[in-house]
């Protein structure tokens, strides 16, 4: 949960920048538009990593539920996928920390 608390403000900032860039008045002011575009370009790679991390976290949660379900076959399949998703989640988290 701590990780999300740090990431959500970045996503919010990105969304706010995007909204500002859609404003016709901002588009008319070339210096403001240029500055906001630079900020967006800087945030975009981080936002992509955050979205990947959050998607993997959701996938791990869903697979964990399947593993705990009573269906043996489904549980076994989900277990294999859970191992892969867990590794990918760990890599995504380490990528965000660096």
By DSSP, the count of extended strands is 0
If you compute it from the alpha carbons, what radius of gyration comes out, rounded to the nearest whole angstrom? 19 Å
Oligomer: single chain
β-sheet strand percentage? under 5%
Estimate percent helicity.
over 70%
User: N-to-C SSE series?
Assistant: HHHH
Low-confidence stretches: none
Instruction: Please describe the biggest sheet, giving its number of strands, its sense, and whether it closes into a barrel.
Output: none
> What general form does the structure show?
elongated
The number of helical elements comes to 4
- Average pLDDT reading: 92
Keywords:
mainly alpha, 4 helices, 0% strand, elongated
Describe the structure.
With 98 residues, this protein is an all-alpha fold. It contains four helices and no strands. It has helices at 2-22, 24-28, 30-68, 72-97. α1 (2-22) runs antiparallel to α3 (30-68) and α3 runs antiparallel to α4 (72-97). It is elongated and about 60 Å long. The mean pLDDT is 92.
């Amino acid at each position: 949960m701590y990780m999300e608390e740090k990431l959500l403000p970045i996503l919010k900032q990105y969304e706010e920048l995007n909204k500002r860039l859609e404003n016709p008045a901002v588009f008319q002011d070339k210096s403001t538009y240029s500055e906001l575009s630079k900020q967006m370009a800087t945030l975009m790679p981080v936002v992509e990593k955050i979205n990947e991390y959050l998607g993997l976290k959701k996938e791990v949660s869903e697979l964990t539920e399947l593993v705990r379900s009573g269906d043996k076959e489904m549980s076994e399949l989900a277990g294999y996928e859970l191992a892969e998703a867990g590794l990918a989640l760990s890599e995504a988290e380490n990528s965000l920390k660096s």
